[in-house]
Amino acid sequence: MPTRYPREQMHRIPYTKLSPDQILGKLVAAANGPISASPLADVFAGKSLRIVLDNGPVLNYRFTDGKRLSLTEGDAAAVQAGYGALTLDRIALFSHMVPKTQRGYTVIVDQDTNLVTAFEVWFSGYQDNREVQRQVYYGYVDSGAAAPGTRHGITNRIEGKGFYWKQDTGIETLEFYPTVLYSNFVELTRFGGELSWCAPSDYIRISDDKYVYSRVEAEFSGTMTLYVLDPNRVEQVGMRLGFDESDTLEYYMFRGGGEWVGQIAQFEAFGDLGTTLAQGNRAAAAAGKGARQVYRPMKTNPIMTRAQVDAAVKQNTTLFAPGGGMAGNRGPASTFLAGKELTLRYDNGQAFDYQFADVGRLRWRRQGETAWKDERYESFDSAPGVIMFGHLLSGARDHDAFSIVADFDHGLVTTLHGTMGTPYMGNEAAVKTMFGVVEMKGLTPPKYRRHHFTDELVGRAMTWNYAPGSTSANGAFAPGLTSMHLYSTPHSLSWIIFLGNGAGGLEWSGPASYVKIRDELYFAYWLEEACNGTLGTILINMRTMRNCGIDYGATPKGLRLSVVGAHARHAGRFNTLKYFSVGRTV
Amino acid sequence: MTRKTRRSFIAVAGAALSAPVAAAAAALPGRIESDPTKARLEHLEDLNEIRALNHAYLIERSMSGVSPADFGEHDVIEIAEDRQTATARLHVIVHTETALDPDCTLVEMAQAQGEGVVRTTVPAVLENTYVRRGGTWKILRTRDSRALA
Predict the structure, then answer these.
(1) Beta bridge partners of residue A187, listed in sequence order
(2) Residue A246: half-sphere exposure toward Cβ, Cα within 13 Å
(3) Helix, strand or coil for residue B58?
(4) Cα(B124)–Cα(B146) distance, rounded to whole angstroms?
């Protein structure tokens, strides 16, 4: 079977803004319960359950058989609905919608302890009606005995894990849990496995070898995936609810198995089990049923037209402003290039002459042209003989910029050619990678050897600390701005923002690429597509554990090139390369 | 004359500031020598009232990042002889939180989850001037003298 690539990747699909009435109409079929490729369990058939939920309703269930139930919520009248149930050992998960409404429940019951986690789910609870909302309740099955003193609850005990899953539907995914708020998933079947995406997620501990995971594909289709997993045996049972790109209802139960692909580091203090979320003191208080932190990049990064970008650039172009938030750990500017003259000749036929007047000013011209253009530049020493530098190409139609890594020991150069504007957004960068050689007096470049794309970083996680920490008067230490990169696929990168206690927090992802400059030295870029449009370029030195780099972006405030400089720590690696082999088809 | 109190005897940087108040107090006409015990009692009452005022002020300001540097051991309070004005030098720690410019997603996301700020703590001296109106002390003005800290 050839791999099915979608016409548009997930972040590019213009999902229909469904109305509540449209959703109600599409949910009629859900009244019969979810479908399932695997046989459904009849574990509850003929039984009644009285489920008491903390701060929630009392749910009285009567299971007529393995497919029909009646539900009484509190004092409300009983309703009949179709349902589906699956079990994983002694954990039973059942799911149903409430007919003629846009809501339902998926309930997880531990038959040994009688403890319950219940997800109330509903549509039309957010301005994008198709986005599934959820409220998680914890409680127990009331057996008439004293209420148990413990509950299921949120956890960081599966933070950092990664799995390959294959559902009984044939759908294959890679799923990483690098934070306590978000997860990162690669759709190997549905989207061809090129990119990864991120989704707000729940992680709930049932026991040390049973957990509940859920995600909602917010900002995309709004679909919810919810399952119980056993990390030892790598088994899952769950349900999926939402509307796909053709607005077709997906409501099904699934059973799956897979492979454990690894565990990356956690950065909470020892003993912190993640039973609370460490939001900072400036976080907006979550309000309303089901509220949680959701990163919505398009809310804060308005789409600009090309004309708007041109006007903003004309008004303000900021080149390497000092004191940028991402440059607190930058190294000193390199003096290597000052006074040098050279030509960068690329394999695509382009060549550029350079004269470096001093540290900060250069002249360039496209070979064959006579006029030189003066530019401000920044440069960094990364490894002996390896210089990264970057500059704008003033006057270029697409506000072009170069981020360049030149290896003067080997006469090789790789340039990331950034341009502003894509068919989707005027303020979204695009990039092309150019390989070539350095020509200068006393340096003979190779004829055939080049830098090359690499997958050596794939699966790795690295933390990046962009600014020194500080110690307050009372001795409390506060780390400077820090993130973690997860090089999630050969063509995408995710960035994770830490919460105050070191747990992973919000996360987002974008297309990326990796070039090997030398052993342990990689030139990476990522594009913040359908986000703030920035092109991030960094040279990662895994011997000195630091990076240098240049960000390129446009906003209503203008165009900017800014310096990046950070210290690194290894945070582990997922063993995922085999899933991205083109020899492997799904 | 002013009456000055502090809980430890270190350099008195506040003396020059309070001199005009002291001079004004000394120049009052028709002054009658007061009972030393009564004067001492009044002085202690004034000190307590001003300390309570300072305490309340710092509690209020602590919401925006000012806290006592210690337990007031190095604070200097000077009360004019006529008990109508006073000055104080309060040693404090100023906590600042400066939000980073959210021009990148990292900062934007950090701020969404309550972080994304640069926090600093700077020792400072608050120079307060007080007036007594209707028998009650009030803070007339406050000057943050970080350079003097």
Answers:
(1) A173
(2) 4
(3) helix
(4) 4
